[in-house]
Specification:
alpha/beta; 249 residues; 31% strand; seven-stranded mixed β-sheet; four-stranded mixed β-sheet; Rossmann fold; 7 helices
């Protein structure tokens, strides 16, 4: 699988281009001329599928098909028939998780068979098996402490980790440097009922690519790897454009 986890940002050409390049490479050769399916959650009057379609075109995608989904109309495997790549847009992370995960993830079988996947912000956050979907309060010393700005809580109080799409083996935080989200990921790893041994905090205008287990960072920022070691967290910072070399376990 080729998975592209985008930390956010407004420069569409920069953040989408690695994914679009993978689509053009044609991991599934027979489908490389098919469309990119851009999955956008239905937010009523606020739904703006054109934003994502135009951004992918700007990054070089020739054919993009928007698919607007909702809890009443989740994606199906048939929606990806003939697609050359799958892009999951950004928005309210718990909403995307509920729409794309609650009814199962069989719709992702083409991705597991080789179609490139890209997730932008919410689409990146829900890609792991353990998805950090929001919240701003975590228990510290017997009381709840703010671990990020409440404006970035996604409508949740407690830092919340739920089952995600299961495409990558680590948890993802987005808008990392710009919104100061590293600390929330630390508390998601140290607390809660779901055991998280590894997490990555991805800056805006930055993409973490996972290709058959190998990692690389694209864009203009950094991706920070966090690894649980006993009751502490070890951090390594990986700038875009520099090969990712992980310390020995």
């Amino acid at each position: 699988m080729r998975i592209f986890l985008i930390g956010g940002g407004h420069d569409a050409a920069t953040v989408y281009r690695p994914f679009v390049g993978a689509v053009k490479d044609g991991a599934v050769k027979a489908l490389k001329d098919g469309p990119v399916v851009a999955i956008v959650r239905d937010d009523g009057a606020d739904t703006n599928a054109d934003r994502w379609v135009e951004g992918l075109h700007e990054a070089g995608a020739a054919d993009v098909r928007a698919l607007v989904v909702s809890p009443d109309r989740p994606p199906t495997v048939d929606d990806l028939d003939g697609a050359a790549g799958v892009f999951v847009a950004g928005g309210l992370t718990p909403g995307y998780r509920d729409t794309l995960v609650k009814d199962g993830t069989a719709w992702l079988d083409p991705v597991r068979s080789g179609l490139p996947y890209a997730g932008f912000s919410a689409g990146a956050a829900i890609a792991p098996g353990n998805a950090l979907v929001g919240g701003y309060l975590a228990p510290v010393g017997g009381r709840d402490v703010e671990v990020c700005d409440s404006d970035f809580s996604e409508g949740l109080d407690a830092v919340t980790v739920l089952p995600g799409l299961g495409l990558v083996p680590f948890t993802v935080e987005v808008h990392a440097a710009q919104w100061g989200m590293h600390y929330r990921l630390v508390h998601a790893m140290l607390g809660g009922e779901r055991v998280i041994d590894e997490g990555w905090a991805i800056d805006e205008h930055t993409t973490l690519e996972v290709t058959d287990g190998a990692l690389s960072v694209h864009g203009t920022g950094t991706a920070t790897r966090m690894r649980r070691v006993g009751d502490r967290i070890e951090l390594t910072v990986h700038p875009a454009g520099v090969p990712v070399v992980l310390p020995e376990q």
